[in-house]
Amino acid sequence: MADRIPVLIVAGFLGSGKTTLLNHLLRNSRGTRVGVVVNDFGAINIDSMLVAGQVDAMVSLGNGCVCCAVDVTELDELFDRLADPRARIDVIVVEASGLAEPRNLIRMVVGSDNPRIRYGGLVEVVDAELFPASRERHPELATHLRMADLVVLNKVDRAPSADLDRLRREITELIGQVPVYATTHGRIDPGLLFDEPLREKPRVAEQLSFDVLLLDHDHHDHHHLHDDYTTVSFTSEQELDPRLLIGFLEDPPPGLFRAKGFAAFGVAEERRKFVLHMVGHHIAFEPRAWRRGEPRTTQLVLIGAGLPIDSALQRLHAAVHTETEPLDPKTMLGVWRYIPH
């Protein structure tokens, strides 16, 4: 499962800034081969490459990325082509039509029979200036937000401070613990959304700052309005209680977007490690054997916007099984519920 290609869905109402965000990802995903799927009508200008909105039009973007314009009914076939190992794609981004129903796209990804892809989350892009009026005319936008795993509040430079604070409170009331990331010009660090490929060698001579990563070649101002994102690492040489870890994942800390890693459970006769991938409220485990000599150490990474680091770590430390007697195998039922069949 760790090797599966994440499929990230970018949705939002007309004019919210989805294509701008997509272009930013393409410019700033260094070493990452992105498969872009545009589900829209008309002509979409992606990084100066014109892609006609017809079924199955594929264009190379020149940096190893591939862009396709498709009708939604063709997505399964396209996923098969982009997930082919010969394509060497690291992440697939689906830019949904501004009038698309996100639920259908989520179902297509989650329900796909392709063993090489996994759900990478629904990102809903919101126009901070126009959303209140758009929601009044289209009440279904509130439903779309409730399905989101991450809300990108875009164009915050166009909204007065008081209006922006009120909008963030309104969105939080709608979506609860889902992270809200405020930005301008679609600037978002790719590391929040997906991982760099393992084949990319680390840069030892250069450390890029967050602002450098957010550089937009079309805008030369140095005043960036954006939220930061947080990563939290947790390591335990003691095994975990699966019930407590599942409780943490099902009721995650505010702002958590992704979680990944592997866990060892203190359960009788359970000698496997369990690889975890979580996006929003979509949780998946996969049992694997420990390699010879590999320590039974749990290692988890949490990624989100505005994560409460201390309380998140406290809850994970509380999930450590400290008793000498192993737990009953029935305590694994919660984990098995999230193992794909």
**Low-confidence sequence ranges:** 47-57, 200-223
Q: Write down the overall mean pLDDT.
A: 83
Q: What's the arrangement of strands in the largest beta sheet?
A: 5-6-2-7-1-8-9-10
CATH architecture annotation of the largest domain: 3-Layer(aba) Sandwich
Text of the CATH class of the largest domain: Alpha Beta
Number of separate structural domains: 2
Kindly report the CATH topology of the largest domain: Rossmann fold
What characterizes the major β-sheet? 8 strands, mixed
CATH superfamily of the largest domain: P-loop containing nucleotide triphosphate hydrolases
Number of helices: 11
How many beta-strand elements? 15
User: Strand-residue fraction?
Assistant: 25-35%
Distance N to C terminus: 12 Å
Would you tell me the structural class of the helices and strands? alpha/beta
Shape: globular
Rg to the nearest angstrom?
21 Å
Helix proportion: 25-40%
Quaternary assembly: single chain
Task: Describe what this molecule looks like in 3D.
- With 341 residues, this protein is an alpha/beta fold.
- It has two domains: 5-213, Rossmann fold (3-Layer(aba) Sandwich); 230-336, CobW-like, C-terminal domain (Hypothetical Protein Yjia, Chain: A,domain 2), CATH 3.30.1220.
- The chain has eleven helices and 15 strands.
- The strands form three sheets. Strands 5-6-2-7-1-8-9-10 form an eight-stranded mixed sheet, with helices on both faces. A five-stranded antiparallel sheet has the order 11-15-12-13-14, covered by helices on one side.
- It is globular, with a radius of gyration of 21 Å.
- The model is unreliable at 47-57 and 200-223 (pLDDT under 50).
